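Reviewers asked in the last cycle whether our approach scales beyond single polypeptides. To address this, we selected a multi-component target totalling 266 residues and predicted its structure end to end. The input consisted of the following lines:
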Amino acid sequence: MNISERQEGDVTILDVSGKITIGVGDVAVRDAVQTALSSGSLKILVNLEEVSTIDSAGVGELVSAYTTVANRGGRLKLLNLPPKVNDILQITQLITVFEVHDDEREAIASF
Amino acid sequence: MSSAAEPQAFLAVASRFENIELVQAVVEDLLSRLDLDGDTRHWIGLAVREAVANAIKHGNAADPEKRVEVLLRVEEGTVVVKVKDEGGGFDPTGIRDPLAPENLLQPGGRGIFYMRNLMDQVEYSFGPAGGTEVTLRKRITDAGAARGAEEEASG
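The resulting structure, written as structure tokens, was:
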């Protein structure tokens, strides 16, 4: 899995690709969000378009990232959910927790 | 009908998270020999990932000296996966509901819930000398579904 970071104004976008699964991808997501917070970003958009698989550990990391950012007074939103990631978030009703966008411009403007 | 042609596999792996990928590769190879759509293969594979992850993390406490055994087979139109660890067992009835409002934002506690949603049946058994074995079942043909219904009716 790979995560690359880019900046659009004051919004930090994390482009995630590959598997967000236990032992590898889950830690990488945690580190990337922590790095963004440490550099002062409070508007984080996680682009999941290229994610092939997410497991319960990966879902747990997204939830942790969401609450960590919220506790700092920031907001974490999701962009471009692949159908299988969408299904996984539906099953545990987390789709009602996250703000999800499918258009990057709109997502950036929503912060 | 003989089941000799039905694919099966047995693996024993050390309790390291990277070995989940090894198990996944075998699962995908086995499922690719069946007449299954991509989504069904994906969801069965994910359920197996969760079972193996639980065995490594919770069962064997990520001790690489402890093994996780995985048995995969297809019998009478049903994919059957057994995952066994060397841990001390747990109480499946004590699993919290991840959909409860107070649990919705918890970082963990969703693995078994996902398995139960993605598969038709998830059963736990505990060996007298320790070790937890979880059995996952997913019907993949109408014939398997019919036989499963008969077994439930007669059971």
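The longest strand of chain B covers residues 67-75. We regard this as preliminary and will revisit it once experimental data from Aim 1 are available.
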